[in-house]
Design goal:
Elements (H helix, E strand, L loop, with lengths): L15 H17 L20 H10 L15 H19 L5 H6 L5 H12 L9 E2 L2 E2 L1 E8 L11 E6 L6 E5 L3 H17 L16 H5 L29
Antiparallel strand pairs: 1-2, 3-4, 4-5
Helix pairs in contact: 1-2, 1-3, 1-5, 2-3
The structure holds zinc ion (ZN) (3 copies).
One zinc ion (ZN) binds next to loops.
Length: 246
């Protein structure tokens, strides 16, 4: 079944409790230490052990180490834990692409504590709801499908949008990508897709065949030439036929 396409407005607020949890998490890591690969470094038996990013959110929300912070449903702090992790995951996906989440960010080779603290600080002060749609009480997840109107336009004038899907109910929406880092990521990803798109026979330069699906789907404009989607229609001599190519 084809999902309905919608564009929805997002309330411009950041949950103050989530922001506080993220700031407290940075404080915890600063004070007690940070580690990779596991929730806690239990070697020295401390009640406030060094922790990974998600482990430290657990320390803040539960008040002590628990075996599996993400599965600690019965704890009164679970709601705060889950809200903070979901928010952070949505923020990291926006900034670093679909494959990123709090675990992957923490465990990336070469990651430093300073980078983790910087992400917590930026995320806590970021208005994520202005960038990622909200549905069924949580952030929608970005889908792979990114639209860019014309690559020949200056960066700031391009309209860049991304599909999002509600993980609870399957509702879909397209939203304009406005965060500069996320825009760069989206346009780079779009260029990569255009690059590897398979063009129909007969052989042609990408962006030049109006019978080719890939040419129709992507913009191949360069500084020197316009692609078939954006070429100026100067065919006045052909009469005034209405309703040409969309
Ligand atoms: Zn939903
Ligand atoms: Zn083509
Ligand atoms: Zn074009």
């Amino acid at each position: 079944m084809q999902p309905t396409q919608n564009t929805i407005a997002i309330p411009a607020t950041t949950d103050p409790d989530v922001a506080q949890t993220l700031r407290d998490t940075a404080l915890y890591l600063n004070r007690h230490g940070w580690n990779q690969g596991e929730y806690y470094d239990a070697r020295n038996g401390l009640f406030t052990p060094p922790a990974c990013l998600v482990g430290a959110i657990g320390m803040v929300c539960y008040g002590g180490p628990v075996d599996a912070p993400a599965l600690n449903y019965d704890d009164p702090g679970f709601g705060a834990f889950e809200a903070a992790v979901r928010y952070l995951n949505a923020f990291l996906r926006l900034r670093h692409g679909l494959a990123m989440d709090a675990y992957a960010f923490n465990d990336t080779r070469g990651r430093t504590l300073d980078e983790v603290l910087a992400v917590l600080d930026t995320a806590a002060g970021f208005d994520l709801r202005a960038h990622v749609p909200w549905h069924c009480g949580r952030f929608m997840q970005p889908d792979i499908d990114v639209q860019v109107d014309c690559l020949a336009l200056p960066e700031a004038e391009r309209f860049v949008s991304a599909w999002h899907v509600c993980p609870e109910c399957g509702y879909t929406a397209t939203v304009e990508v406005t965060d500069p880092a996320a825009r760069k990521l989206a346009v780079d990803g779009y260029r990569d897709l255009a690059e590897i798109a398979v063009h129909d026979d007969p052989k042609h330069t990408p962006g030049t065949s109006d019978a080719c699906e890939a040419c129709d789907l992507y913009c191949y404009c360069t500084a020197e030439s316009a692609c078939i989607n954006h070429v100026e229609d100067d065919t006045d001599t052909a009469g005034t036929a209405m309703g040409g190519a969309e």
